[in-house]
UniProtKB/TrEMBL annotation:
Coiled-coil regions, chain positions: none
Residue stretches spanning the membrane: none
Protein name, per record: OSGI2 inhibitor
Cited InterPro entries: FAD/NAD-bd_sf, OSGIN1/2
Source organism (scientific name): Bucco capensis
Source domain of life: Eukaryota
One annotated GO molecular function: growth factor activity
GO BP annotations listed: negative regulation of cell growth
Length: 541
């Protein structure tokens, strides 16, 4: 079911009434929509939560903020006896209402974030040991726990999954890509898809996420085609009201009650951007939020070599551009090989794509083929035969000083790219310092990607584990409290997913759990203050 703008506004208003309670909910004048043009000048709305990013991280957080609560299933027995004892003792409570640090204690898994490991073992018990146990949780919709929020994304719900190359299988099993409350198998059955493998296509995952938002009734919280230009903190005090002045068309007054009482939501953040309309025009907007959650993922900016000639048009940085070049026939009949730089799975995908289209490949990477940190070393051969085919070629068809290029594939282990030349040549250097020039038809640099947090102060460099350095999912994730996912260096700013080092969908759901619990506790404190009549002033800390 789709929602009209007015219907969505009304539903969010009703939810806002639930958030504050009936007594204060009736006093709210109105809530503007996202566009500046419809924001009333006398009561600019402040949202409890704005989520930036509508991929699986943002979707899962919206699911929990919408009031869905996980409980231990009546017949469930978790294979970890210590954890099961803890769960059994608090069976009457949802997981959101329990001490996550206590539940996480002693658990181990493939995430460095303890709540991520906890939630994963509740949804996929002992999955890393090869077991396919069902989740020990069941879900209830408790609408009184709804916290009003908006999820802002550039495209449809699903985020970057809608733009991934559709010809490759995902690295994870389909069941590991699913979100709470709707198994991937259930969705696949409704689509009558013949699943020959437990691994699935990215386009299937994208459609699943989009359907998930609809079937769970989350559409009212989502805004598509939205581009964020700035997220800035508002410092509001008695002597510095003017610091947060907006343009003359937008009021800076907080949400007013009919009796003049100020909102119980602190206006901590100003979120600006634009929404792309159907006619291509840009409609600017400005929102205020008490809390902002960053769920943007890491696919915004492809990694670059930072070498001479990298900006030439024949040097590509994405699989989608490479796929487009192949589909348009631009590489058909080319005598020179494709140059692929990188030793990750995306680079392996490019090798396979070229190989399957009878395009010769030169594969350049810095590591030794025996390096234990190579991703291929972590993948079972039976489950990932195509990637082990690439790895086998990397090992057995490498270039040596006295050898020629192989006809279909040649690897250059322990080599760096020094430069790209305008005549479509590349200068390589080996670990020993020996230089070699190779000719190519198109170069594809696939060395990972990084988040683009340009909309934050200093591009977010101040909130990582290493201050004043760019945020990266591996080397410098955002530093968070391990149980609330709130940034340790910026209050009321949360982050989850790849931004905090959780690259797999299996583990990013833990971030949603941690944030939902933190905000639920703060919501309860607000309600307690309301009941006592202490809700005046500039907001609740």
């Amino acid at each position: 079911r789709s929602y009209s703008s007015s219907e969505t506004e009304g539903q969010l208003l009703n939810s806002f009434g639930q958030y504050f309670g009936d007594s204060l909910g009736r006093k709210i004048k109105t809530m503007p929509l996202i566009e500046e043009t419809v924001m009333p000048e006398d009561s600019l709305f402040t949202l409890p939560v704005v989520i930036i990013g509508n991929g699986p991280s943002g979707i899962c957080l919206s699911y929990l903020l919408s009031g869905y609560r996980p409980y231990l299933s009546p017949e469930a027995i978790h294979p970890n006896p210590v954890l099961h004892t803890k769960l059994e003792a608090a069976r009457h409570l949802s997981i959101v209402d329990q001490d996550l640090e206590y539940l996480s204690e002693g658990l181990e898994g493939r995430s460095s974030n303890p709540v991520a490991v906890l939630f994963d073992t509740l949804l996929h018990p002992d999955a890393d040991f090869g077991y396919d146990y069902p989740p020990v949780l069941h879900w209830k919709l408790e609408q009184h726990h709804y916290i009003p929020h908006l999820v802002l994304g550039k495209g449809p719900p699903g985020g970057a999954w809608h733009s991934m190359e559709g010809s490759m299988l995902t690295i994870s099993f389909g069941d590991w890509m699913e979100l709470p409350g709707l198994t991937f198998k259930e969705w696949a059955a409704t689509k009558r898809r013949n699943r020959k493998s437990d691994r699935v296509m990215p386009e299937e995952i994208a459609h699943y996420y989009k359907h998930y938002v609809k079937v769970m009734g989350l559409q009212k919280n989502f805004r598509d085609n939205v581009y964020i230009t700035s997220v800035s903190r508002l410092y509001r005090g008695e002597d510095d009201e003017d610091r947060s002045q907006l343009n003359e068309n937008i009021s800076t007054q907080p949400l007013e009650m009919e009796d003049g009482q100020k909102s119980l939501i602190k206006r901590n953040w100003e979120v600006r951007g634009y929404q792309r309309a159907t006619d291509g025009s840009h409609v600017p907007f400005c929102l205020f939020a008490e809390n902002v959650a960053l769920a943007t993922g890491t696919f915004d900016s492809p990694g670059r070599l930072q070498v001479e000639g990298e900006d030439f048009p024949f040097v590509l940085h994405s699989m989608s551009d490479f796929g487009a070049a192949i589909s348009k026939g631009k590489l058909r009949g080319k005598a020179d090989p494709v140059l692929v730089v990188g030793a990750g799975l995306t680079a392996a995908d490019a090798v396979l794509c070229a190989y399957n289209n009878n395009i010769p490949v030169i594969h350049v990477f810095r590591r030794r083929v025996t390096d234990t940190s190579l991703i291929f070393k972590q993948l079972p051969k039976k489950l990932y035969p195509e990637y082990h085919k690439v790895y086998h070629m990397m090992c057995t068809q490498s270039h040596t000083a006295d050898s020629h290029l192989h006809s279909a594939y040649t690897s250059f282990p322990e080599h760096n790219v020094l430069s790209f030349k305008p005549e479509m040549k590349c200068v390589l250097q080996s670990a020993s310092g020996l230089k070699k020039i190779v000719k190519f038809s198109v170069a594809l640099v696939l060395i990972g990607s990084h988040p683009n947090l340009f909309f934050l102060k200093d591009q977010g460099h101040s909130i990582g584990h290493h201050s004043n350095q760019p945020i990266t999912c591996k080397g410098n994730p955002i530093e968070i409290d391990p149980y609330t996912y709130e940034c340790t260096k910026e209050a009321n700013l949360f982050a989850l997913g790849p931004l905090v080092g959780d690259n797999f969908v299996r583990f990013l759901k833990g971030g949603a759990l941690g944030i939902a619990r933190c905000l639920a506790i703060r919501q309860k404190k607000k309600h307690d203050l309301i009941e006592r009549g202490d809700g005046g002033g500039d907001g609740v800390p």
